[in-house]
Amino acid sequence: MSEQDFFDGDAVIVGGGLAGLTLALAMEQAGLRVAVIDTLPIDTQLAPEFDGRASALAYTSWRLFEALGVAEALRPHTARIEHIMVCDGRPYGGIKPGGPGPHSLHFDRREISEGPDGEPLGWMAENRHTRQALASAVLQRPNIVSIAPATAERYETRPDGVTVELADGRRLSARLLVACDGKFSRIRQQAGIRSVGWNYGQKGLVATVQHAEPHNGVAYEYFLPSGPFAILPLPDNRSSLVWTEPSDVADALKAADDTVFQQELENRFGDFLGDVRPVGPRWAYPLGLKFSETFCTERIAFVGDAARGIHPLAGQGFNLGIRDAAALAEVCGEAKRVGLDIGALTTLRRYEDWRKFDSASLAAGTDLFNRLFSNDIAPLRHLRGLGLSIVNGIGPARRFFMRQAGGETGDPPRLLRGERLDAA
User: Fold this and answer.
1) Which tops the pLDDT comparison, 161 or 384?
2) Which of 37, 213, 244, 363 has its CA 20 to 30 A from that of 309?
3) pLDDT higher at 355 or 97
4) What is the number of domains present in the chain?
């Protein structure tokens, strides 16, 4: 694959992040010729720089990676999620601060997947390794053209397609433009598509820790007064932390010296995994909700964070982008095979109808949970703890939530069922 001055194909994808690269691979497998524009060279994304973030890949997302030929390269860098423990964490200053509280909700993958080597609830992978695997696959596909580093300056729709002009004057032509350019999408703004949302006044402090005891594939989500505190299993007795605090507190923790940070970490983490110590840098990301009023318009589709950005407490951000990619690639591939216009609004509405309800449900759910649990009001704390315990005792409810988080409810696209789009 080489950069070229002119492109005339099926789709132009603006944004070569995780969602954009996933979409390019899915569309290529569906029989489409695509270009990916990104401000960084694709080669740069193969370098092992560490940005602190990791993603929980739902089991249907892993099926998509297997179908796209990405999973084997990524597997050595992943940890299986066998259990998820959702806990109302103990308030600070108690007899034993930090660690799980008395009420919890336990999700066990054996309830929906049999056998010792059955499908886990998900896989944890650092984003740097996921980028490496996706970029390596993209570079091997002859029908994916990388145009990077480059900036999409403007676009113009035509009755039969769209023209994208780069900052350096080059022009690309396609039937469809896909915005994968993030929560503050320039393409969405240029298209005049409104979005609704708000900031939470919180930041997610991201760090990696080493602990003495094995995590045994258990992911923990504590709901502490300041916000969710997630402990997510990584290989080699490590875990990724997504630690939610008010913005000023998160900034202070990010800048704190090692001794202060260690003490605050132990207060929240507890000692259930033995001695714990941070490894690597800390990062802090502002948290908010942003939801596009539409997931498509004539000749343009919005995918990943360009369609919606949600609170990370459920670990669903990248998974939603993967589900978008699976749905859009299937819709466009089927349209092209029967001679329909993949950029026509009637085609793109099928994608929007497939993805918008699921997205809205998760956005509303994460917003509600964050507001409900990010406080230390005693009566509310007792009620929500009781609610966790009640749901924990209802098997069908547990299994429903596991399948919903896994992306298996409703009518999942073929890639999420592990089926290749080019299969007969």
Assistant:
1) 161
2) 37
3) 355
4) 1
